[in-house]
């Protein structure tokens, strides 16, 4: 079984590629998390987790869901993490999670995909993003091959920087930076409700026809990147930056 959480579509695409090749089913963790659904699920023997990288680890909301949910029949777990640059030392924490869930750890695969974190970085333009996805195809095929053959992913090498980012920086990043206070909406907002629907944390509500953010944000960038009018900004950091969502690439 494939468990997938996706902010702006990268992980969803990778998960679908794996599902199509292995003829497996995908569980939408966005919906599970949004509805606070922690009921037990029958996974079969193999679990494949496909997620984006948040602050050099798997998203905290995903690890929280994994710890709260009982897997029936699960024996092995592969971690597939996409990122705009690197995943740091995420493998250490994925191994810990697998051990805590009493699952055989089958490794972590890093796949470079277009950047979406416009609260800090620049998202690529359309053609550049398509090129990044095309280059990712080699790693996606390799990922599928290892899982199909029941093999563990190759163990990556980590340096001091990787350990520092996933270890010390990750909790500090969540504590000091992952907040919704900077999200603002322009007066031209039509109140289409798209941001409310896309938020996996139920952190946005429409008040007087305009979105208002609460304090329970994970910085997935779904609200700002899926806004059809592009009237949401993250302070001044997102001004003038292209919004990224995988569907715009029209890659099947």
Automatic annotation (TrEMBL):
Start and end residues of each 4Fe-4S ferredoxin-type domain: 179-209, 210-237
Gene3D superfamilies xref list: 3.30.70.20, 3.40.50.360
Assigned keywords, A-Z: Iron, Iron-sulfur, Metal-binding
Coiled-coil blocks: none
InterPro entries the UniProt entry points to: 4Fe4S_Fe-S-bd, 4Fe4S_Fe_S_CS, EFR1-like, Flavodoxin_dom, Flavoprotein-like_sf
A Pfam cross-reference name: Fer4_9
Protein name in UniProt: EFR1 family ferrodoxin
Native source species: [Clostridium] ammoniilyticum
């Amino acid at each position: 079984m494939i468990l997938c959480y996706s902010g702006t579509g990268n992980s969803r695409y990778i998960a679908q590629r794996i599902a199509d090749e292995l003829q497996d089913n995908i569980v939408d963790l966005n919906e599970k998390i949004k509805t606070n659904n922690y009921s037990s699920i029958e996974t079969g023997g193999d679990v494949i987790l496909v997620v984006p990288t948040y602050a050099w680890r798997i998203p905290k909301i995903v690890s929280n869901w994994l710890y709260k949910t009982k897997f029936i029949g699960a024996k092995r777990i592969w971690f597939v993490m996409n990122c705009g640059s690197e995943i740091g030392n995420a493998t250490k924490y994925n191994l810990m999670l697998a051990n805590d869930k009493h699952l055989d750890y089958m490794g972590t695969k890093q796949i470079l995909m277009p950047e979406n974190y416009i609260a800090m970085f620049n998202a690529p333009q359309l053609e550049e993003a398509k090129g990044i996805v095309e280059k990712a195809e080699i790693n996606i095929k390799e990922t599928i091959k290892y899982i199909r053959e029941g093999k563990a992913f190759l163990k990556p090498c980590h340096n001091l920087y990787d350990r520092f980012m996933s270890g010390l920086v990750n909790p500090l990043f969540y504590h000091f930076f992952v907040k919704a206070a900077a999200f603002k909406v322009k007066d031209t907002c039509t109140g289409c409700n798209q941001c409310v629907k896309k938020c996996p944390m139920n952190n946005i509500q429409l008040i007087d026809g305009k979105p208002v953010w609460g304090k329970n944000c994970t910085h997935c960038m779904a609200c700002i990147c899926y806004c059809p009018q592009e009237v949401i900004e993250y302070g001044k950091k997102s001004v003038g930056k292209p919004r990224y969502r995988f569907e715009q690439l029209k890659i099947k």
